[in-house]
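Key idea: predict the complex, not the pieces.
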Amino acid sequence: MSIEGKNISCSRGGIVLVSDFSFSIKKGEQLAIKGANGSGKSTLIRLIAGLIPSPADTLFWEGEMVSKSNLSLYQQNLLYVGHKLCLYPQARVLDQLRLWQNLHKIPLKDMEQALNIWGVGALKDKQISHLSHGQQKRLSLSRCHWLKRRLWILDEPESGLDQEGHAILTEALSAHLGNGGCIVRATHDNREMANTVVVASSLPSFGARGA
Amino acid sequence: MILTEIHKLYLCRGSLFSSCCFFALALFCFTLALGSEGVILNRCAPPVLWILAALTLFFSTPFFLKAEFQAGLLDEIFLHPLSPSFYLLAKIVAEVLLLGLPLLMVGALFSPSFSLSFVQTAHLLLTLLIGLPALSALGILGGLLTLHTQGGGVLVSLLILPLVLPLLLFALSVMEMTRLGLDSFAPFCLLTSGSLLLVILSVGAGQWALTIAVEA
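Result:
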């Protein structure tokens, strides 16, 4: 399994969002994308996840170019956790699990087990809007445990987590890499990480950029 | 996916109830404003019910869509193996069931206030039932187009209300035929095909609008 990006560039309305970004990781490896706030990390992450169309001949999954024709097939292999947590604010935690169950056809007990790993198992009857940001983040990240995907694309997963949450996240990332998975992560985490390819965004912050 | 959309809409039951209350209150205001002459009430009932039903859907749907967009749920739909058009169709079905049918019931309750006979009420509600999927589809399309704007509800109405005119005219034609005691099968067929066409076009355009909304 491998994912490769070759000279990925993206502009919108005359503003350069991503400039000449290249990377290559194989199974068991992690890509850490670092950069200043507004340097295009989230745009790049969304591009790799296929939420923004990538230019031709720039993104390759297992040697094959990712294009419109095989985008859906590529996306079935990935889990994307972005800044938005994909949680329905009016729902209780249990309602959210049932929504995910309808969407992804995963047994409820697997999701409840994941909630216990993330330490939010006791909050099943609480409304999501009443949870703290950190608790909501843990609920969102619990998808890493029950949605079995080979490629994880995470946008600053550690933001909003306390020390215990960080530890659970680190363990989950290590376990996924140990099982032969790949991770693409935008992060400000400066701790040393094993099996990690670190790439910095070359762009300055948004506002200092032109076409 | 239909079950997911019904569940999501059910979670917003407070907003659904508010929409039904708006519809009922607006109908009540019209019955007071139009006076007590049965002929006037009878002639005004079909356009009033249709326009109020359209406005109720056009004001509610963008609200539900915006909540989903802000929560990042549209990304999840985009990453799902099923085409986004299935999501849009599931949304239309959910809206017709959880908002459209209650609006029909409220309309039926107010029909005596508009001096409508049983046959006229039945035909009017049937035209609304046929038109509801198209109204819902247009509301969803308008909601997706105005996701990144402020004051989406009013803008949706400005963009989408003109597209409702053909359906409104066919529905009024049905009611006129019914009032005159003539056969209304032909305008019913036109209404049904118009509704189907608008659903198909809205789902197609909605898929494109969803892609733009997720990319932005």
